[in-house]
Amino acid sequence: MSQNNSNAKTAMLAKLDSIHKVEGFDPSPFAVDYTDLNTQETRKRLPVMIQMAWFRLKYPEGRIAIQVSPGKDCFVATARIYPSYKDPVDCYLAEATASRGPDASKPSVSPREWAQTAAVGIALRNAGFGLQFSAAGDDFADMAPDELPAGEMDTSRESSAMEQPVQAEIEPTYEPAVLTEEQRLEQAFQKPCPIKKYSGKTLGEVLAMDPNAIAWVANKYKDNQELSDAARLICEHAMQQASV
Does the residue 121 lie in any domain? Predict the structure, then answer.
């Protein structure tokens, strides 16, 4: 009987390993080791840049939305994974939250970017873009929760279907991803437009409709520096394209 159960479990693990399968791509060779700080066990995870590349292969029109806010001695980042950039705000595959503060051993690391990278990595893993159970060495109960302890999270958010209440584990230390110019521009295009007239649209969508609106956000909008910086990056890119 135990042999039958073992065979059945192996077959089911093979099924799990096919989640988000992309023809010709195997993420497992990119896996790196990390030590679980609770159990001291060595496990494997994918670098965030590999997770993002895998996500792009599976969902070429997908988007990763990130919100960052300052917390007590840290930055708190929330990442949401969408199969399509056209999906409504609440129609996401998974959501995750992470916090990072300054680390004296990593003085050059921005805690803001570190929090963003950690949130994206956990959200992508929750969405199925991580090593599945057999490769990671995880048991079925060890799904990736949000990092923040109970009471520090915004309980008004609706929990993702993939984020069930489980015993929290300490996540590996995600190093901040170094984004290329193209990736930074892509993130800028996906930022929400703050102009009420264009509520629900991204900066990229508004650029095609009303370029002057993007210029206004870049130069005159003061309520959200992150959105202003994104609009400024878009304007700079548009000027470069026009001069070519």
Answer: yes
